[in-house]
Amino acid sequence: MRRRKFIASLGGLAAALPFAALAEKTAMPVVGFVNAGTAETSARYGAAFDDGLREAGYIEGQNVAVERHWLAGHYDQVDALMKDLVQRRVALIATPGSAVATLAAKAATSTIPIVFGMAQDPVQLGIVASLARPNGNATGISFLLGEVAAKRLRLLHDLVPNANRIVLLINPANNSAAESTTRDVREAALSIGLQIQILNATKIAEIDAAFASFARDRPDALFVAPDGFFSSRRVQFSTLAARDKIPAAYSNRDYVVAGGLMSYGTDLAETFHQAGLYTGRILRGEKPANMPVLQPTKFEFVINIQTARVLGIEVRPDVLSIADEVIE
User: Fold this and answer.
1) Looking at the structure, do residues 63 and 208 belong to the same domain, yes or no?
2) Is the pLDDT reported for residue 109 higher than 80?
3) Which of 33, 75, 262, 315 is most solvent-facing, going by the fewest CB within 10 Å?
4) Do the strands 195-200 and 221-224 form a parallel or antiparallel pair, or are they unpaired?
């Protein structure tokens, strides 16, 4: 099957250049970069990955080719994409920011190196043997989702102390993230004394439908699970939350920059940078089996104070003082 036709069959997943063209042009190694979001909404993270590669001595177009694929939430197409990358023998598969893509890559190959970035526990998912010694073809960065989700829920409750019933919005197509987020948020909610209601969304229209349901059964606040597709729809989330005056907590600062109320999570740009650095080190000859899975050291609590005012939320001084960034 011609490469151009294959990409079309995957629903328009973007690649920088067809692999065949890259192979004809140069013998440089090809990295298959797969991300759950879109090229437009993830540009900052793609640049951070490139910075990591550069730090390791690799510059795209000079001594490495990066074939970029943006899933845009089309998780159902990732298995076919991974099989194609493996069949064409790319030098490495990089899946920063997507457990779905990482699991598909791991299922597709036990020999091609994989550099991942995920919010779930890679040991629990069977991707690595241990964080210290992966002992396989995969390594990368783990975001500590459980601890982060619990902390995010507590910070949301600090911002909106009268909120008792929280809607948790998950993407069931991102199964591992949905399951772990649901478990961790429910456990944290029980310790605080909050009620959690689960809603699902896998498409743009289903996000609209979730907010439409609030007219009939209004929650006190919204907790949006970490998900690449959700992140690509951050403007939609902030617009709907402002329209319906729903306080919402998100997984990264991009939502807050777009007008969301608050976020707490790892510095994703640094995560992508580390993934790029690990990619370069493996291309230089290091083995993923011997490279420990990294864990982030920097977490960001970001508040949009203007959004808080619009929602009628008075941010307490003690909460404001612990924010890493306050967006006016």
Assistant:
1) no
2) yes
3) 315
4) unpaired
